[in-house]
Amino acid sequence: MTGIILAAGLSSRMGKNKLLLPFGSKTILSSSIENAISAIGHVIVVTGNDREQTESIAAAYNIDSIYCPDYRKGQLASMLKGIESIENDDFAIIPGDLPMIEGSDFRKAMELLSSYDAVRPEHKGTPGHPVMFRKENRESILECRLPLKEYLKSIRTGLFEGSIGTILDADTPEAYARLLAIYGDPAIGN
Questions:
Q1: Packing angle between helix 28-39 and helix 51-60, nearest 10 degrees?
Q2: Which residues are CB-neighbours of 140 under 8 A, at least 6 positions away?
Q3: Whole-structure pTM value
Q4: CA angle in degrees (0–180, nearest 5) for 28-29-31
Q5: How far apart are the C-alpha atoms of 180 and 163, rounded to whole Å?
Q6: Fold of the domain spanning 2-180
Q7: Where in the chain are the domains?
Q8: Residues near 92 by beta carbon (within 8 Å), at least 6 away in sequence
Q9: Other CB atoms closer than 10 Å to residue 56's CB: what's the count?
Q10: What is the mean pLDDT of each run of 10 residues along the chain (190 residues)?
């Protein structure tokens, strides 16, 4: 399994790079990387906006980063760039602004993947991440170039109830404040 962390976006709704915002003693991106590494092991980061800073964070964890020159085109371009880099492995799509995905979310998705083409968590009916795919999906995803949610409708996708961390992102100042309010300071606990 390879985790593809999407860290290329413009953070236009936030007004500044949300991945570089503090989250405890780390950044949002650092926390997302640590969670993925602890559960999956092999992780890559797709960079674009603020490339130097996001690549520097990835390098601190000794993981590869891949630059997406088309990052201004949106998340689909970054996702496709990450998938292109995977040769023969199952893979997970993980937005970099979800710093509290739990290990149990990753483990449950990996357990279910043998029975489906793809698996994703939902929390109280809201679709979440990580979205995991069997390697057999790679070519068709790259060829059809559909947004993730559209592609998932065309294949056998398993759903499971994930933690609230599977949906709590930092897209806006309000979402970031909510994330901090729910988790307090992750470095010291609530």
A1: 40
A2: 151
A3: 0.93
A4: 70
A5: 16
A6: Spore Coat Polysaccharide Biosynthesis Protein SpsA; Chain A (3.90.550)
A7: 2-180
A8: 1, 2, 3, 4, 36, 40, 106, 109, 130, 131, 132, 133
A9: 12
A10: 94 87 92 95 94 96 96 92 94 96 96 97 97 96 89 95 95 91 61
